[in-house]
Amino acid sequence: MGFMAGKKALIVGVASERSIAAGIAEAFAREGAELAFTYQNDKLKSRVEKLAERLGQDTSLLFPCDVTSDEEIDAVFENLGKSWDKLDVLVHSVGFAPREQLAGGFTESITREGYAISHDISAYSLAALAKSALPMLSDQSAILALTYNAAVQVVPNYNVMGLAKASLESCVRFLASDLGPRGVRVNAISAGAIKTLAAAGISGFRKMLHYAETASPLRRTVTIEEVGNTAAFLCSDLASGITGETTFVDAGVNIMGMTFDED
Ligand code: NAD
Ligand code: 0WE
């Protein structure tokens, strides 16, 4: 029996089979969890449906949810509540900034609108989902968000998304403090760079993967399977003593203060 047997988990953020959220879904299913999913828009519905099917999940537990809409967020939990009497796990694997924010110098590229959109979708949405899910959460529930080290250290071109991830990580701590007394744990995984849809078309992304391959202690990038396995642990009762924490799954890149060329 898997270590998530009996757990009911909602996964927000699948856009393709390569999504980090898909790696998380895969690990959760392998460990015996029952899954429900949201999809951002109709264009993505069939992809999420295919994943749910492949993982042997109930394909009626798919709900539209653009996280900029309070109505859509509330409808997810209203409808989920018709099938499930509780929610053990909520996964937030969502991030977005208008594309032009992710190129060029920070000072030059940042705009009030770019700031507002990136923070709304990438950080506020975690609080909004937690708030709306709260009535369904139990005293053994877990919430997990996906972050990136540019929240803490500067990464070229990540720009306003770095600020949004800093806000997201702080949100994890405030939620952990606020919901801890109810037995709800809240954590984040800080993943290394992975080639997903969100990475497609980002200028210099290949260089970032190369950086991980040369500068990380493990001399490689990480996979969505590795992030999924850590997510399964953090959202299971095996991690019952862990909350408010950001766990790196990045082959160790973040520990390096300096590296030298190697051949
Ligand atoms: P992805 O493109 O597969 O997933 C991003 C998801 O965000 C998509 O499912 C998309 O539908 C969703 N999304 C965007 N705007 C939305 C909105 N308004 N409403 C609802 N959903 C919305 O890419 P990914 O790399 O799997 O990203 C998942 C998470 O992991 C993000 O938080 C990202 O910042 C984080 N992350 C990614 C990497 C990486 O290198 N790929 C590294 C560290 C952290
Ligand atoms: O969080 C991310 C990606 C977030 C992201 C990606 C896009 C691409 C499409 C947010 N918004 C958008 N908007 C779009 O229009 N990562 C951690 C992956 C990533 O993105 C980078 C990185 C890394 C790593 C952008 C610049 C520099 C490094």
Plain-language structure description:
With 263 residues, the chain is α/β, with parallel strands linked by helices. The protein contains eight helices and seven strands. It has helices spanning 20-30, 42-54, 70-83, 106-109, 112-133, 160-179, 205-215, 224-234; strands at residues 8-12, 34-39, 62-64, 87-92, 137-147, 185-191, 246-249. The protein has a seven-stranded parallel sheet with strand order 3-2-1-4-5-6-7, with helices on both faces. It is globular, with a radius of gyration of 18 Å. The chain starts with 7 loop residues before the first strand and ends in a 14-residue tail after the last strand. The structure holds nicotinamide-adenine-dinucleotide and ligand 0WE. Residues 13-16, 19-21, 40, 44, 65-68, 93-96, 121, 146, 148, 191, 193-194, 196-199 line the site of nicotinamide-adenine-dinucleotide.
H/I helix tally: 8
Placed side by side, the strands forming the largest sheet appear as: 3-2-1-4-5-6-7
Distance between the termini: 46 Å
Q: Could you spell the SSE succession in H and E letters?
A: EHEHEHEHHEHEHHE
| Computed CA radius of gyration, to the nearest angstrom | 18 Å
SS strand fraction: 15-25%
- State the assembly state of the protein chains: single chain
**Low-pLDDT residue spans:** none
Query: Roughly what percent helix?
Result: 40-55%
Quick one: biggest sheet? 7 strands, parallel
